[in-house]
Write a structure and sequence with these properties.
By secondary structure, this protein is mostly helical. It has one domain. It is 68% helix and 0% strand. The protein is elongated, with a radius of gyration of 22 Å. The termini are far apart.
């Protein structure tokens, strides 16, 4: 199986995730709703789309780490070389650019860390969307996305200096950008108070959820038995 065919497997969740950001999500949502009922809501579509995009970014980061290790073992080789300017072996196998300049870690590991952190943040929100920390999680995910843009620009400069483009690296870069878009859309939905507009339940329940989301959980006050006794 050649490099381009293998790359398609990483693009499948990324493309489906992107479609969940578009009107096409209306056709895809019923499929996900069988295991995730909230997929029919606007919030659910954005959460699923963001998670899928980030998952695709994680898997391709793992693949780039594998390529990095193979390049160290066998040299740049041709196991992921493409035609013309597309050649991930020449980029990932380049001794001058294949690790970050601060910690000396392979870029695949850093990508895995970034996508893992973002996945945990978004998945936590998906499991408890009205928790008091949900907004902070979305903000941190957005911050990770913004910080990653700086690294992506540096890596694009590295590819320009080498004269080759790594198709696997580019896929990870695009997944990161799309994940940032998902984080921004989720935070926008949260802050515009339509976070629970599509969920089931009465208006009173929705108002109660919005109140808990803004004010947090208030523990009930337990009355002592002595206060209930009549003197």
């Amino acid at each position: 199986m050649d490099a381009e065919t293998q790359l398609l497997f990483h693009w499948i969740p990324i493309v489906i995730g992107l479609l969940m950001f578009t009107p096409a999500s209306s056709q895809l949502a019923p499929i996900f709703s069988k295991i995730w009922p909230s997929a029919m809501s606007h919030r659910g579509k954005l959460l699923i789309g963001t998670l899928l995009v980030m998952f695709g970014g994680f898997t391709v980061s793992v693949h780039t780490l594998w390529i990095h290790n193979k390049a160290l073992e066998f040299g740049s080789g041709s196991f992921c070389a493409g035609g013309g300017v597309w050649d991930c072996s020449s980029v990932i196998g380049n001794n001058e650019w294949n690790v970050d300049p601060v910690f000396g870690l392979p870029w695949g590991i850093l990508g895995m860390f970034a996508f893992t952190a973002s996945l945990w943040l978004i998945l936590s929100v998906a499991k408890d969307p009205n928790a008091v920390w949900a907004r902070n999680h979305l903000r941190i995910a957005r911050l990770i996305g913004i910080g990653g843009i700086v690294i992506i620009l540096y890596l694009v400069y590295a590819e320009f200096s080498i004269g080759k483009i790594c198709q696997y690296c580019t896929t990870a870069h695009l997944a990161h950008v799309f994940g940032l878009v998902g984080s921004v859309l989720l935070l926008k939905a949260y802050e515009e108070n339509n976070w629970n507009d599509d969920t089931d339940g009465s208006e009173e329940e929705g108002q109660s959820i919005r109140t808990r989301k803004k004010q947090g959980y208030v523990a009930p006050v337990l009355r002592s038995s002595s206060s209930e006794e009549e003197e």
